[in-house]
Amino acid sequence: MTPQQPSLGLPMVYLVDDEDVVREALSWLLRSRRLLSEGHASAEAFEAMLQAQSGSVRGAWPTSPSCLLLDVRMPGTSGLVLFERLAERGLLNALPVIFLTGHGDVPTAVAAVKRGAFDFVEKPFSDNALVDRVEQALARSAQAIQQRRAREQVQRALAELTERERDVMKLVIEGRPNKLIADALNISVRTVEVHRARVFEKMDVKSAVELANLLREQGQAPGA
Predict the structure, then answer these.
(1) Which tens digits make up the pLDDT trace of 175-184?
(2) pTM
(3) 77 in Cβ contact with 42 (< 8 Å)
(4) For a Cys-Cys bond, which of 25, 79, 88, 188 suits 72, CB 3.0-4.6 Å?
(5) For residues 100 and 69, is the Cβ–Cβ distance under 8 A?
(6) What is the pLDDT of residues 123-150, one digit of tens each?
(7) Residue 219 pLDDT
């Protein structure tokens, strides 16, 4: 199933190939499966789009499930060089790359998969098999974007905590009862209860265990 969750926006498939006929054929194929696409005739054109996005989109890009169908050999910047640049920018999870290769490029494409590319498809390719892999790549992108948004939400919630709330949260996660937290921080038990309730409300959890699990899942240090 194509991931078209309203909260994530419509999926987009980017096509980077110097041959017009290939981009047109891919675009038609994707439309037949109700997938949007955007074609670029060179790696340079795609990078120009990325640069424009970085200036117009708030936060990380892409904001909706996306993947890239990338030709290996092109005039100017090659697909492999573009791939390495995307990897350096940390985009491969949210923008999985599927290489389109000729027979002679297969060993190179296999090596790229080992470095983080989603897959490679040899020309001429099976239409159904290619779109199946595209949909799987879009599903991975959707998962990566959801995880990124969850991390960002936790970071925003943590930023809203006062210094005292952070102190209380750290001791709550350690499993200390309110009386021991009050003693450790030299405050009243009632004050601990108030701060504890505010921490749970801001972090949108109902228990210390849920709070600890949330921070661990999002890679946040308990005392952050």
Answers:
(1) 899 999 999 9
(2) 0.79
(3) yes
(4) 79
(5) yes
(6) 888 888 999 999 999 999 999 999 888 8
(7) 66
